Amino acid sequence: MTAVLQTQGLGKKYGRRWALRNCTLDVPAGRVVGLVGPNGAGKTTLLNLAVGQLQPTSGGITVLGGRPASGPEQLAGVGFVAQSTPTYAGLSIAEHLRLGARLNPGWDGAVARDRIGRLGLDPAQRAGKLSGGQRAQLALTLGIAKRPRLLILDEPVAALDPLARSEFLQVLMEAAAEHRLSVVLSSHLVADLERICDHLIVLVDSRVQVAGGVDELLATHHRLTGPRLHPVRLPAGRHVLSERYTDRQTTLIVRADTPVFDPAWTVGPVGLEDLVLTYMARPTDTGRQSALEVQR
């Protein structure tokens, strides 16, 4: 599978503090990829490195086969919507679109005007007078109309109310399908990722805990409940990710490449949120091993 973003041992250091260290991952092309992890995991630093706003301290990173922001073609191929969904408060929507046309050689003015019209926004309205959801939609429109091959979004809906967030994600889904974009979306909101993403990366302490297609991950992770047993023994090929005990019951989250049939256990599905929380709670040393195992 072709990768639009690859890192190998990537690190970024500020003084004595590592914001990102020893990060290795592949982001597949043609997918909508959810990047999730706790605060301080290195998600924003990773994305800023990917768009060339930061330079790495160690390791390597390639985006669309080249060094981030290394030239006009590279810059044209990547769209970026930062967490603050930046717009210029004193400029009107129409002025933002004209600025986008001047700065981006592949600018698609028809796409930009169509999306502004569909959103019901007044082109004469200044960005400083827009709601948070409207500013986010304007920033997304600028990113889409650039006609990038890869669109990167760093928690663009974190500050939006539920309705504005839903509208933003709907526009993003339509754009990804219409323009066949590769998308990387960083978010804490797993429900949003479940709605829009078909590939998941969980990043904890700069390390990939798990990565893969959402459908594949959900199909290979199971919740097992049964009588209290300690230690737990399962057949080969069942990897225990978490264990919980009550006086009478054991609950496991396991990864298994084949269906689980065991009369000693009641087998149920694992939702995406529980899967993410399970990997976020695991020690990163073992997480490195499990991420490699899942990607095989």
Describe the structure.
It is a single chain. The protein is α/β, with parallel strands linked by helices. The protein folds into two domains: 3-214, 3-Layer(aba) Sandwich (Rossmann fold), CATH 3.40.50; 220-295, no CATH class. The protein contains ten helices and 13 strands. A six-stranded mixed sheet has the order 5-6-7-3-8-9, sandwiched between helices. Strand 6, helix 6 and strand 7 form a beta-alpha-beta unit. Helix 4 (109-118) runs antiparallel to helix 5 (132-145) and helix 5 packs parallel to helix 6 (162-179). The radius of gyration is 21 Å and the shape is elongated. The protein starts with a strand and ends with a helix. 38% of the residues are buried. Mean pLDDT is 89; it is low at 286-296. One of its GO terms (molecular function) is ATP hydrolysis activity. It comes from Actinomadura rubrisoli.
Question: Which properties best describe this structure?
Answer:
single chain, 296 residues, alpha/beta, Rossmann fold, 2 domains, 13 strands, 30% strand, disordered C terminus
Topology, please?
Layout: E1 3-14, E2 17-28, E3 32-36, H1 43-50, E4 58-63, H2 72-77, E5 78-81, H3 93-103, H4 109-118, H5 132-145, E6 150-154, H6 162-179, E7 182-186, H7 190-196, E8 199-204, E9 207-213, H8 214-219, E10 221-227, E11 238-245, E12 249-256, E13 266-269, H9 272-280, H10 284-295
Parallel strand pairs: 3-7, 3-8, 5-6, 6-7
Antiparallel strand pairs: 1-2, 1-4, 8-9, 10-12, 10-13, 11-12
Helix pairs in contact: 4-5, 5-6
Protein name: ABC transporter ATP-binding protein
Keywords: ATP-binding, Nucleotide-binding, Transport
Pfam family, one: ABC_tran
